[in-house]
Amino acid sequence: MADALQPEAQEYALERDCTTLSRHVLQQLQSFSAEAQDLSALMNRIALAGKIIARRLSRAGLMEGVLGFTGDINVQGESVKKLDVYANDVFISVFKQSGLVCRLASEEMEKPYYIPENCPVGRYTLLYDPIDGSSNTDINMSLGSIFAIRQQEGNDTDDSASDLLRNGRKQIAAGYILYGPSTMLVYSIGKGVHSFTLDPSLGEFILSEENIQTPKHGSIYSVNEGNFWQWDESFREYIRYVHRSEGYTARYSGAMVGDIHRILIQGGVFLYPGTVEKPEGKIRLLYESAPLAFLIEQAGGRASTGTEEILDVVPEKLHQRTSLIIGSKDDVALVESFIQKQAAEQSEKMKRAQARVPQ
Ligand code: P6P
């Protein structure tokens, strides 16, 4: 017979199995106020969306019509995968009748989805990337969903959603769901970063780790080096530096959530610089960079465009993109030092050129 757990271990195991996401949110807030209950319910809804998407992903290879492309191009100019559409619809279905949100803003929708008249409306907005890393859907590699929650400010009477065009410090919660060997949900409501693992036998996300802190430095640099010749020289100089320095290793999966989760736990830096093709960067601010920046700052890390903290960037449009450098404090600072060095050299060159011009 398996050894029965010692009483203390038994109690710990039970306590842990009972620490569901919604209970953890209330514990974090140490409150049962209406706002606390709302936030707890919002996180619970996100967890439900994650479970439904995880179930689909786990069966995708066995079902007809689930994988592959729809044939459409989304607002990002990207070919749409069937799972992108499915996951987007899951979030809408999960929140439509929740009475918690008034709008959903998604990578997959040009305009925010407004909760219909015949449905209860709340004061929150969910911003999300339903499937991050779409290139991995048909090859059974890790994928993610990224989310941020903001409170509606003012009355969006003209459906312009202009109150969303504020910096990332307006987020009240953010996180991601990682669909990997196990499905994990990592979130913060501004009181540390906490991870939950889906226990399929319970159908619940159970607390895995609390108050995650990313190391100040890590050996990992995560970037698509196929874009090397499209970058600004400063990023090429950084890559040359790590190539010739001991103690660095490259990891890049094609799905940012998985790469950043690795960096959250082990340290290092993920970067997606602007390129010739996309000088403003590829990663979307409101529902990718900003939620991840919120999380990494809570874990003691940093997220920068190279010249500005991601959380300070004020978007001019819903689908604004940014250059992204995110991870351990020291590693983000190292990348920025190459940008600063390049800027100083260019400024010096300008001064010398101006000095040669006859007055
Ligand atoms: P590339 C997915 O579309 C994504 O936004 C991130 O998840 C991922 O890291 C990146 O794009 C991959 O882009 O240009 O390297 O294929």
Radius of gyration: 22 Å
Fourth CATH level, the homologous superfamily of the largest domain: Fructose-1,6-Bisphosphatase, subunit A, domain 1
Strand order, main sheet: write it out. Answer: 4-3-5-6-7-8-9-10
Low-confidence residue ranges: none
Q: Give the oligomeric state of the chains in this entry, treating copies of one chain as homo and distinct chains as hetero.
A: single chain
The N- and C-terminal alpha carbons lie at a distance of 94 Å
CATH class descriptor of the largest domain? Alpha Beta
For this structure, the CATH topology of the largest domain is Fructose-1,6-Bisphosphatase, Chain A, domain 1
Order of helices and strands: HHHEEHEEEEEEEEEHEHEEHEEEH
Bound molecules: 6-O-phosphono-alpha-D-fructofuranose
What is the strand content? 15-25%
Structural class: alpha+beta
